[in-house]
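Sorry, can you check?
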Amino acid sequence: MAVSLGTEVLAKETELDQAFAGACIDDAALHRILADIGRLQGELRYTHLKYHLAMRSVLSPDQIAAYDRWRGYGTAQAYLLYLGIGSGPVGPLLCPASALHAGVAIFLGRGLLSSS
């Protein structure tokens, strides 16, 4: 779902760019395209963040604390990551929601989420 939403966002952004480049956009079309982009970005963000929320239901309190530290919650790093700047211990954190499971696998592989 995240990939298809991302593709739709890119298509709408391309539509917007082409409309401006071709000087064939009016106020109504601008409003419609921007509303579409905003809706799609909201859906994409929801699709991503719902998996972070779901993680909390399957992790122990110690694992949640490790996960929160790795994500940088409560730090300046978290704000930079929110803005898309910087990286975590496994590289840039600009990944789609479908990559969340890979991130969890990396956590498990490094022992960061071990239950002991």
